[in-house]
Structure formats: C-alpha cells, structure tokens
Amino acid sequence: MKKIVVLSGAGISAESGIPTFRASDGLWENHRIEDVATPEAWQRNPALVQDFYNQRRKQALSVMPNAGHLALVKLEEKYDVTVITQNVDNLHEKAGSSKVVHLHGELFKSRSSIDESLVYDVDGWEIKQGDLCKKGSQLRPHIVWFGEAVPMMDVAVDITQEADIFIVVGTSLNVYPAAGLVYAVRNGVPIYVVDPNMPTMQKRPNVTFIAEPATIGLTELAETLLAKADTE
C-alpha cells in the first residue's frame, strides 16, 4: 500500500469556520500574537493567555470537519495516510483520520508549566487558573508558542521521507520549520499543492498546483488518486 503524507495548515480549518492565525491586520482575534502566543506572554499575563485559548477551544467545539477533511479520510481506503498538521484543532480526528501528527500542539490538551511531559486531555473547553498538574504547577495550553521548540519536527521529517505521494493543503509554506518539510520529500515523489493562493515554492519537478480551496481541491484530488490506485 502506497504511503500518502499530508501537510495541512490553517486554510483547511478556515473552511470549517476557524479563523486563520495570521489575519491581514496582524492580529489574531483582536489580540497581538506577542500577547497570547509566546512564553513571555504567559509569564506576563497567564490569565489573558488562558482565557484566549479557552475561547478558541469553545469556538472549536462548535465547528465540524469539512469535505477537505473527509477527502483525506476517504484516501485511507486505498492508501496508508498520515496527516502532519500545523493546526491545533481536532478536525482531522473528528473527521476520522487515523494517523495525525500535530506540529504546533493540541488545543484540547493541557500540560504542566514545569514538566512538558505531563500532558492531559481537556474536559470541555476550559482550563482554569488553579488547575494543577500532579507536580503542583499551573496547567497551560498544550500549544507550541512562538520562540518554543517544535518537538514533533524530527518525527515529521522521518514520516515525510517515507512518502510515496506528498500533499500540501491550506498553508502558505511561510511558517518554519513546518514549511521545510517539502524539502524532505524524496526526489521523484509527486507533490500536490492544494491552495487557492498558490504558495511559492522553489522550483522542483513533480509538483502539481491545484488552485482551489480544500473542500474542492482535495475532493477532486482524492477521487483521482483513488481511481489511480485501482489501476496500479
């Protein structure tokens, strides 16, 4: 069974109603990113940061996967599919994708603020000030903030190097280190880039651009790849 690896970004979640991280005005839900998505912000005003992610969590509970998410699940009928996502929501899992790697953390998990190996599921949408890990420290969102290491990056590189087909969807390919995964794809492996904004890539062979949103472009691509699997 051929292996498909997918790199997904904010664009696929946006079609379900989750605002993209990088709004045109440089704000994220009316907040400066420096005020809600950095370790310094957490040190400075943990209550603001906690409330910000509580609201994101509450919002994420109200949205559903879209046709793009479902197309990736459909591909599992004929392919071994792993989704590497820059998104912190759980829409890939809600849709039914069986293998999902989160590069930037998971909105519906919390972790200790002194021991990053202590990770817990969030029950509902709220982490309260005073919710503690087993070592007695405040629980924080299980999110990779700007300025923090991306612990799943090495895992993602290893998975990408095994790909027989690589799909990029809903990402500008401007956020590193995630964007660098494209260059971990082995020579000769076909790459499909699904995004209406046509992200720029260094020239390389075997790249097909599909200038459509995920709901349209992934649905069409999945149909093509499933038909191809039947003939191989």
Key attributes of the depicted protein:
alpha/beta; 232 residues; 8 helices; 11 strands; elongated
Q: How would you describe this structure to a colleague?
A:
α5 runs parallel beside α8. The mean pLDDT is 91. The protein has 232 residues and is α/β, with parallel strands linked by helices. The protein is elongated. The strands form 3 sheets. It has a 6-stranded parallel beta sheet with strand order 5-4-1-9-10-11, sandwiched between helices. Helix content is 31%, strand content 21%.
Brief rundown of the structure:
The protein has 232 residues and is α/β, with parallel strands linked by helices.
Radius of gyration: 18 Å
What are the low-pLDDT stretches, counting only 5+ consecutive residues below 50?
Answer: none
Shape: elongated
SS-based class: alpha/beta
Tell me the helix content: 25-40%
Percent of residues in beta strands?
15-25%
The counted number of beta strands is 11
Mean pLDDT: 91
